[in-house]
């Protein structure tokens, strides 16, 4: 069964990023696809060091565990990263992860090609739009297909596990999840 990987860039235990990815995953599963939610919590994701070793070795050689996540993304048909907004842009770890996933893909048969997905940004009050744009840069350069919804994938929430209070945000993400699943089914 086609699988979608959902990746949270939050360090918090009961994060809004994880909560909203859970809601998104449910919408995808309702359409008959498999999902796996992975968190960067507890990891220290290093930035790409441009060693190019992934080209010969097939995966990232940095020893922080991201290589295992990269293997899961490699086997998936969909990819959805979510991140908290920190001072108007995405938390550093998620961008470091996206850059390394993209680098490994480009050096290894472009496994991200035609993978379906899109980013989600979570914040208390401001910076979601820019963060969404920042994370969106990852998709077209890697020959991926970014999917829409009936609004942008932005969520308003401050305290942990409160993203469900953003009713419009929830319906936007549910529709986004449905669209991701529908497109994956159509092209596979
Ligand atoms: C270092 C830091 C910077 C933040 N910067 C912003 C910001 O620029 N705009 C905003 O609205 N919220 C900001 N927040 C609040 C978080 O985005 C908000 O709590 C969000 O729900 C966190 O998502 P998470 O639960 O998935 O980690 C910031 C929080 C932290 C810790």
List the helices and strands and how they pair.
Layout: E1 3-8, H1 16-30, E2 34-39, H2 53-57, H3 66-74, E3 78-86, E4 89-90, H4 92-107, E5 116-117, E6 120-123, H5 128-136, H6 138-141, E7 145-146, E8 154-156, H7 167-187
Parallel strand pairs: 1-2, 1-3, 3-5, 3-6, 5-7, 6-8
Antiparallel strand pairs: 3-4
Helix pairs in contact: 1-7, 3-4
Bound molecules: flavin mononucleotide.
Residues 10, 12, 15-17, 84-88, 122-127, 157-158, 160 line the site of flavin mononucleotide.
Structure, described:
The termini are close together. This protein is an alpha/beta fold and 188 residues long. Helices cover 42% and strands 18% of the residues. A hairpin with a 2-residue loop joins strand 3 (78-86) and strand 4. The structure holds flavin mononucleotide (FMN). Residues 10, 12, 15-17, 84-88, 122-127, 157-158, 160 line the site of flavin mononucleotide.
Explain briefly what this protein structure is:
The chain is α/β, with parallel strands linked by helices and 188 residues long.
How many DSSP helices? Answer: 7
Radius of gyration, whole Å: 15 Å
Which CATH class?
Answer: Alpha Beta
Q: What are the low-pLDDT stretches, counting only 5+ consecutive residues below 50? A: none
Instruction: Give the terminus-to-terminus CA distance.
Output: 11 Å
Q: Can you say what the CATH homologous superfamily is?
A: Flavodoxin domain
User: Overall mean pLDDT score?
Assistant: 98
Query: Main beta sheet: strand number and arrangement?
Result: 8 strands, mixed
């Amino acid at each position: 069964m086609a699988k979608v990987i959902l990746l949270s860039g939050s360090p918090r235990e009961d994060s809004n990023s994880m909560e909203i990815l859970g809601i998104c995953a449910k919408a995808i599963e309702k359409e008959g696809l498999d999902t796996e939610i992975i968190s960067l919590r507890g990891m220290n994701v290093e930035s790409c060091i441009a060693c190019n070793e992934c080209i010969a070795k097939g995966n990232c050689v940095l020893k922080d565990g991201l290589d295992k996540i990269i293997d899961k993304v490699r086997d998936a048909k969909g990819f959805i990263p979510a991140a908290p907004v920190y001072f108007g842009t995405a938390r550093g770890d998620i961008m470091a992860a996206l850059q390394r996933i993209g680098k490994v893909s480009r050096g290894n048969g472009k496994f991200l090609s035609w993978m379906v997905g899109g980013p989600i940004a979570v914040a208390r009050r401001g910076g979601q739009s820019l963060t969404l744009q920042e994370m969106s840069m990852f998709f077209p350069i890697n020959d991926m297909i970014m999917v829409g919804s009936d609004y942008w994938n932005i969520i308003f929430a401050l305290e942990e596990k409160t993203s469900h209070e953003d009713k419009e945000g929830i319906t936007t993400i549910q529709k986004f999840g449905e669209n991701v699943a529908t497109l994956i089914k159509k092209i596979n």
